Amino acid sequence: MSIMIDLPPAMAQEAQGYAELRGTTLERILFDYLKSELERSRDADDVYSYLMGQSGWLPDDYVFDREEANSR
Question: What is the pTM of this model?
Answer without folding.
Answer: 0.56
